[in-house]
Amino acid sequence: MLARSSALLAGSVLLLTVETQAQCPALQVDHWLNPESADADQYGTSIAIEGEWAAVGVSLDDDGPTFANCGSVYVYHRSPTGTWSSPPVRLLASDRAAGDEFGTSLDLAGGVLVVGARSADVPPSWNETGAAYVFEFDGVSSTWIERAKLRPSDYDQTTRPFFGESVAVSGATVVVGANFNDEPCQSPASECGKAYVFVRPVAGWNAPPTTPMIETRMLVAQTPTDNAQLGGSVDIDGSVVIAGAIYAKHTNSASSGRAYVYLEPVAGWASGTSPLTESCTLEPSYADDLGLSTDLFGGDVAVSSTMIAVGAWRARSASNSSAPRTGAVYVFHRPPANWSGVRTEDDKIVASPGDEGTLFGHGLELQANRLLVGAPIHNLPTSTQAGRAFVYEYDGVTWNETEWLIAADAANTDEFGYDVALDGDTALVAAIVDDHSGATDPGSAYVFDLDAPLLTSLCEPGLGEVIACPCGNAPAGPLRGCDNHGAASGGASFTLAGCPSILFDSLALSVMGENNTSLTLFLQGPSTSSTGIVFGAGVRCVTGPLKRLYTGNASGGSLNRPLAADPDVHTRSAALGDSLSAGDVRYYFPYYRDPQAVGPCSNSSSTFNCGNAGRAIWVP
Q1: Is this model's pTM higher than 0.90 or not?
Q2: Residue 344 CB contacts under 8 Å (≥ 6 apart), including other chains
Q3: Total Cβ atoms within 10 A of residue 564
C-alpha cells in the first residue's frame, strides 16, 4: 500500500521484544523470482495479496530500450489446490513512458487492483506529477483490464508531488498519497503532502489515460507541517482512512512523524468540496529529534476493524535518548467515542535491544488480530542485513510473537522484509535486492504458510495407520508404538518438540513408556514406508539410510535428547553425513531393547521394539 523505493538509502504501553528463540520460522512454500532477472529492477517495491490473487510491483522494470524504468506489475493466481500460477501475468500502463515507476505502490481488494506510478505524466502537460491506475479482473475474458487513470486536480509545476507514492483500496473507494505535494503548505516547496480519495462512479471505473479521473475529496492536515510528507503511506478499511506523515511535528515539537485518521462523512466522501481534515492525530508517547535520523513514525500504516498499526522504523526501543534506534510498531485501539483528538499508542512492539538499525516496521500488515512486520536489514546468524519478518497475534490483552519469516536462501543484503502482505494464513514477503539468475539486485518474493505444522506424528498402530503389531501387542492408544508390557505400559510414546530450524535449532526428541532402563537409540531417516515394516516386537515406518543421532539408557522408561552437552539435531546429522537444508523433511523414531523375557513376543528375534515416529520439516 505504500512505496519506499528510496527509503533504505536516504495510555498504558505494552513493550515487547522480538528476539526470543522460543519461536520458529514459518514454512516457505514458494519463491517468486523476478521474471525479467534484470539488475536493480526493484521487484517487490510493493506487494499485495487477497484470496486467489497476489501482485508484485517492479517500479524500475524496463519494457524494452524505449521504456526504461517505466515499471510493471506481475499478477499471480492461486488455484483451488493452493498452487500459484507460473509464469505470472505482466501488467503495464497503456500510456507508459520511460521513468514512470509504475508499481511504486499497489493494493488489491475484491477483484480490483490499484497501482501507483509516482513519476507518470498526466494530460494536458503535467510532467512527472504521478498517477494511479485502476485494473479490474474480467471473469469473461479471464484478464486484468485497465479501467481508469487517476490524477490530482491540483499540481504545482515547481516540484514533483509523487502522486501515487502510496495507494489503498476498500470496496468502491481508492486512496492515493502524494507526499511531496506543496499546495497546502505554510511555505513554498515544503513537501507537506496530502492524500486523495476517489469513489467509483455509479457506472463503474471508466477514465482512459487521455481523460483521467480527478479526486472526489482531498485529505490534508488541519495544521500542515512543512516537510511532513503526509501521504507517504495510506490505508483504508471501510470508512476509515489512515495516512502517515514521517516528518510531521510531534506535540513536543520533534519532527518524529505523525499519522492522521480521516472518517468518511455521514453523507459520503463527495458531500463537500473543501479539503477534509483529520478526525484524529496519532503520535508516539516518546519521540526525540535528530534531523533526518528521527523516528520516521508513519513510514507505514495499516488499519483493520478497530485497530491501527503505525510503523516507525527508526524509533528508539525505549523512552530515552540513549536507547538504540531499533524500529518499532505502534498499535492504537479505537476508543468508545470513535477516533478523535490526539492519541498516543496503546501497545508498542519493538525490535531486540541493542540491534540498532534493523528497520523493524519498514513493512507491516494488520489483519484482524494478526500483525506482520518486516525488518529488512535485520542480521541473521550467518548473513548480514539479510532481513527477517515477524508475526504477532493479539489475544485481547497482549501481542504475542508467534513466528518468524526467513528466506530459505537468505544472503547478505537481500533486504527481505522490505514490504510484506498478509491474507489469512498466507504471508508474502519482498526481498527487493535479492540476487538470482546471474543478475545483481533484481529482487524476489517469498510465500509462507503460517499455519503449516512443522512437526507431526505418524506410524501409529493404534490408529490403524500401518500394519498390525506382530504378535497382537497393539498399543493402548494413539501416539504409541506396539506394546512392550501388555496393559502395564501400552507401548512407547515418542514425541518431537521445539523448532527444526537450521539457524535456531531447538528440536527435542522424547520417549516414555519403554522398559524401565532400556538402552535406547534415537534414529533419523529420509523416507517412510506407508504400511510399516515388522521390527522386532514393533512396527517401523522410517526407512532409508538411518542415522543414529543419540544413545542413552531410559530412566523410568523415559529418555530425552539432546542434552545440554550434546550437539543439536542438525549439527549431529551433518556430522553423520546428512547435512540438512531448509525445506528438507526427515523422520525420527526410538529403537529400544525389549527382552523376550519381559516382552510381549516370545521368540528370540523379538528382543527389541520401537515407538511411533515423527516427521520434521526443516526451516531456515
Answers
A1: yes
A2: 11, 13, 282, 283, 284, 285
A3: 4
Q: Which is more confident, 225 or 565?
A: 565
| Domain of residue 544, CATH code | 2.60.40.10
Count of domains observed in the chain: 2
Q: Which helix (H) or strand (E) holds 574?
A: helix 569-575
Task: Report the sign of the C-alpha dihedral through residues 168, 152, 132, 147, in that order.
Answer: positive
C-alpha to C-alpha distance for 527 and 541, rounded to whole angstroms: 8
3-state secondary structure at position 39: coil
In angstroms, the CA 567 to CA 562 distance is 7
Tens-place pLDDT, residues 381-398: 999 999 999 999 999 999
Cell of 504: 535456531
Q: Which residues of 121-146 are buried (b: 16+ CB within 10 A; e: fewer)?
A: bbeeebebbbbbbbbbbeeeeeebeb
Q: Is residue 349 part of a domain?
A: yes
Note whether 607 and 593 are within 8 A (CB). yes
Cβ neighbours, 10 Å, residue 561: 20
Over residues 154-177, the pLDDT tens digits come to: 875 557 899 999 999 999 999 999
The answer to which of 252-256, 286-290, 430-434 has the lowest mean pLDDT is 286-290
Is residue 120 one of the residues assigned to a domain?
Answer: yes
Vertex 328, ends 219 and 506: CA angle to 5°?
140
Nearest CA to 56 among 69, 47, 65?
A: 47
Q: How far is CA 470 from the centre of its chain?
A: 48
